[in-house]
Amino acid sequence: MLILECPYCGVKAEETELSPGYEAHLKRFGPGASPEEFEAYMFARKNPKGVHFERWRHTYGCGKWFLAARCTATLEVFGTYPAQVSEPPADIIAKIQARRPGWQPDGKVTK
Amino acid sequence: MSDPVSALNGASFQGFSTVREIGPLGMITLRAKGVKALDKAVKAVTGTKLPATRRIEVNGDKACGWMSPDEYLLVVPYAEVSNALASLAKSLAGEHHLAVDVSDARAVFRIEGDKAADVLRKLSPVDFDKLEPGELRRTRAAQVAAAMWAQDGGFTLVCFRSVAGYVMGLLSHSAQPGSEL
């Protein structure tokens, strides 16, 4: 069971109180974009085994969207943060790197 | 004007705790954020201060609860809703806000008795031992959304009117004598 703390209301909500919103930090490609960019924006999703950033909605609580950093392999949650950012905040990255040494925000692992 | 009718006409169930549908209860959804006059506007209607995150401020038969960062639930007697709306419109004039009468869109239940928390414990993913006094918890009751808080030695639960029958069934079943936790 996944338990995520909603950064808006502070409730430690379990999975059934939340709705998934899939991958976070997508950059939108709209009018003027090349077909390849638009296709990638529409369909190409990361499917990492390891650190992943996701959107979640606190559906049965305050109703707000927030973002979560977690590991898809171990279900470890590194942290949650408000959705008004275009990339993971520094404190979340630091928490991930403390647990996964060598991990970099773009998904590459440096040894 | 026709008389207001609550969702289940005051249905009740006596198990190891008492479950009662109460109402009609006046409820106003107030959405606003970062509005200067907000605390005064709420005080004029409910006589309470603006609640902190996840709190409900109760003042007799009136209350103001925190529903989300930009949403408050104002509880007033049913007959006072239109006055309350007028008061809000006056004190928040010119500010970006939304105040709507949702009294008839909701159903309200009281769960009372020594083991009232046990009735809810079976239905919601909430640790009721850690629920603080004056905390308003929005969660789910089995399959539907609900908001609940402890008040006067019991719990008050608010849900949508369309699922009032379902919630009454849930609460009654959960309060069956002999099924205490």
Descriptive notes:
- The complex is a heterodimer of chains A (111) and B (181).
- Chain A contains two helices and six strands.
- Chain A has 111 residues and is an alpha+beta fold.
- Chain A has one domain: Folate-binding superfamily (Folate-binding fold), CATH 3.30.2270.
- In chain A, the strands form two sheets. A four-stranded antiparallel β-sheet of chain A has the order 3-4-5-6, with helices on one face. Chain A has a two-stranded antiparallel ribbon with strand order 1-2.
- In chain A, strand 4 and strand 5 form a beta hairpin.
- In chain B, a hairpin with a 3-residue loop joins strand 1 and strand 2.
- Chain B has a single domain, classed as Probable tRNA modification gtpase trme, domain 1 (Gyrase A, domain 2, 2-Layer Sandwich).
- By secondary structure, chain B is an alpha+beta fold.
- The chains are: A alpha+beta (111), B alpha+beta (181).
- The interface between A and B is medium-sized, with 14 and 12 residues.
